[in-house]
Design brief:
The complex is a heterodimer.
Chain A lengths: L3 E2 L18 H4 E17 L6 E7 L5 E7 L3 H6 L12 E9 L5 E9 L4 E3 L9
Chain B lengths: L2 H15 L1 H6 L14 E5 L32 H12 L1 H4 L12 H4 L4 E5 L3 E6 L5 E5 L16 E7 L2 E7 L19 E10 L2 E9 L8 E9 L11 H9 L50 E5 L24 E3 L9 H10 L28 E4 L4 E6 L3 E6 L16 E7 L2 E7 L19 E10 L2 E9 L8 E10 L14 H19 L1
Antiparallel strand pairs in B: 1-2, 1-9, 2-3, 3-4, 5-6, 6-7, 7-8, 8-9, 10-12, 10-19, 11-19, 12-13, 13-14, 15-16, 16-17, 17-18, 18-19
The chains are: A mainly beta, B alpha+beta.
């Protein structure tokens, strides 16, 4: 599991992936796409954004705990996410955009579980379109 | 025995046998005889400071225990934690961070609240930070059991004249008072609300939590009707904190009492179009008295209005917006030039911090209806009340009252409504001018006056319009329109501030920009 910073823009991920209560563009940098894989250390079912924390192994073998921002926990709940989907130790893959301040924080649109199950985080506004 | 004495004894016997019945005849009731709890209330107790007997401290008045038996039956380890909580309460008390108080703490706090009652709900709107509770009283199914909420999930039934509420799915982050009394996420609270006379609810709560206590225990205190109160005002806890410590900066040209700029193009109040009201496309639901029944859970089809009211393609930084402006006909907001410049600047990343919703403050009107979160409309007698999942509410009285005095300014404004045919018309003013209209930064000031129409056009859709007249940033009134779609869902809770990891990042971006500007100068 290596942290890879993708230099190409991932058009699949639209900038509005999890807008809910703050400006995505003010906090996250569309020019800093990231692709991460790691073990869940904590899932925070919070609003207006949920937060998944994963340990990601760096190229030099050290570990970084990344904070991954999803849409509101209420949206995840209504989309059918269950508490046991993200217990500590679960291995997940994500793609997203890193925070402008350079911290190990990213905004993600969905996750892929080890068995290939895809869970879409989406954004609340999509419910309205 | 003298006859008079016999009669006296008989009367006493009757009163002893049916004391509550004798009282209960004097309480307000609905048409079917259910006690009617609706009104303004406030706890009369010092229990918010400490549920148990306590002497005064510099931050709390003294008070006697409201716990049956005097003390809380803590398990030994839990008692040690309570003591630590008490000693470090300035730092540890969640309420000192303006976090949601939980149940039963909210019921004891020294702030007024309003109870609304329908056949299927008892709802509570608290002045403290616009917290609310919707209590389902008609056996409605709890759709998402097992997820935890700061205010829990409340289901109730009437047992005789007592409303018995079961509160479950509480998290373990709230305290029971300011003295550090606490519970775990395993807690179940059973509340009992009994009108013992027309102006007093006897409130009882039994706290059962086998992880923390040796036995269930009960508190009891009166809620007293605020007979002179006509309207709740606002106390936005975190906004007050951040305005006083400088984290949320005053905007002199938009906040009350900013004047209309002298260089403005004169505001043409009559320039707005007279749009005909939408017509129903199919039968609408009605109450027994013929009034449209718009009660229920709604999500607006806002077309990205939270990212711009005007039509806009996808910017790299913002998602597209469908455009919800229906007047002016070209869909362009009639900005004064300086206000348009302000709007353009607000979309810069370093301004993201300035959007009040990034701080988790309430969204104001009309934005509360198109932030991407649902809301629930209730129609208790004399009111329409809208509860926003983002933890704010609007109480809309349906009467001919006057607005609040001009000096009283609110985030959510002062709304008064009436039915015009099948359309609910809501007219509001007394805004404070602190809100943004969306993340893009569309501008609004304290001078905004809003006329909204809610027209049900089918059993599951309302066409919503808001006409905003604001002579500070605009040259004429403008109108937005969007459908509200009803769904079979239940409202959850957005505890925004409590886990707001974003604001620090936004502040970093803002501060970096400011430092750069300072360097350049």
């Amino acid at each position: 599991m290596k942290l890879k910073i993708l230099l190409t823009l991932i058009t699949l991920l639209s900038a509005n992936s999890t807008l809910a209560h703050h400006s995505f563009s003010a906090e996250f940098d569309i020019d800093k796409p990231v692709s991460l894989s790691g073990k869940v250390t904590k899932m925070q079912w919070s609003n207006p954004h949920g937060w998944i924390y994963i340990d990601v192994e760096n190229a030099d073998g050290s570990m970084t705990n990344w904070a991954l921002e999803t849409s509101a926990a209420n949206n995840l709940i209504r989309r059918g996410w269950k508490r046991d989907h993200l217990v500590a130790g679960t291995v997940i893959q994500v793609q997203g955009f890193q925070a402008r301040n350079g911290s190990a924080t990213a905004n993600i649109r969905g996750i892929v579980l080890e068995d290939g199950t895809r869970l879409f985080s989406g954004n609340a506004d999509e419910l309205t379109k | 025995m003298p006859r008079v004495l016999k009669k006296y004894l008989l009367l006493n016997l009757i009163l002893m046998a049916f004391p509550l019945a004798a009282f209960a005849q004097d309480i307000p009731r609905t048409a079917d005889g259910t006690p009617f709890l609706q009104g303004f209330w406030q706890a009369q107790t010092q229990a918010a400071y400490n549920l148990e007997d306590h002497v005064a401290h510099h931050d709390m008045p003294a008070g006697l225990s409201v716990v049956a038996g005097g003390t809380i039956p803590y398990q030994p380890q839990a008692l040690a934690r309570r003591q630590n909580n008490f000693e470090n309460r300035a730092e540890l008390d969640p309420l000192n961070k303006c976090f949601l108080p939980g149940v039963p703490r909210i019921m004891a706090m020294p702030w007024p609240f309003q109870i609304f009652q329908t056949d299927e709900h008892v709802a509570m709107a608290f002045e403290w930070t616009q917290v609310f509770r919707i209590i389902y009283t008609a056996g409605q199914e709890h759709l998402y059991p097992g997820f935890e909420f700061w205010m829990g999930d409340s289901r109730a039934q009437w047992e005789g004249d007592t409303l018995v509420v079961t509160v479950s799915d509480l998290n373990d982050r709230t305290w029971l008072d300011a003295a550090g009394n606490f519970h775990s996420a395993a807690a179940t609270i059973t509340e009992r609300y009994t009108l013992i006379d027309k102006n007093t609810i006897q409130y009882q709560a039994t706290i059962d939590d086998p992880k923390v206590y040796t036995d269930p225990w009960t508190i009891e205190f009166p809620l007293v009707r605020q007979t002179e109160m006509k309207r709740l005002l606002e106390y936005q806890c975190q906004a007050e904190v951040e305005e006083s410590n400088g984290d949320f900066e005053r905007v002199d040209n938009l906040w009350y009492p900013a004047p209309i700029p002298q260089d403005n193009i004169p505001f043409d109040a009559d320039a707005g179009a007279q749009l005909p009201l939408p017509e129903a496309i199919s039968a609408i639901e009605r109450h027994d008295d013929g009034t449209p029944n718009i009660t229920g859970y709604y999500m607006s089809d806002a077309g990205g209005a939270n990212y711009g009211l005007e039509k806009r393609e996808n910017l790299a930084m913002f998602p597209p917006a469908r455009g919800v402006v229906v007047d002016p006909a070209d869909g362009v907001l009639p900005y004064q030039e300086w206000a348009r410049n302000e709007q353009l600047e607000r979309r810069e990343a370093w301004r993201g911090y300035d959007d009040p919703t990034a701080h988790c403050f309430v969204a104001g009107i009309p934005r509360s209806h198109y932030v991407p979160s649902p809301f629930y409309i209730l129609q208790p007698p004399g009111y329409v009340v809208i509860f926003h999942e983002r933890m704010s509410y609007r109480v809309i009285p349906l009467d001919d009252r006057n607005h609040l005095p001009d000096s009283v300014r609110l985030w959510m404004g002062d709304a008064i409504g009436h039915w015009q045919g099948d359309t609910l018309v809501v007219e509001s003013s007394n805004y404070n001018g602190k809100a943004w209209l969306n993340e893009l930064g569309d501008v609004i000031s304290h001078a905004q006056k809003v006329i909204e129409t809610y027209t049900p056009v089918s059993e599951s859709q309302i066409i919503y319009r808001a006409t905003v007249a604001d002579p500070i940033p605009y040259s004429r009134p403008w109108t937005i329109e969007m459908p509200f779609n009803q769904q079979q869902e239940e409202l959850l809770e957005v505890a925004c501030l409590e886990d707001n990891n974003d604001l620090g990042h936004l502040k970093d971006v803002r501060d970096e920009h400011r430092a750069l500007m300072q360097q350049e100068n």
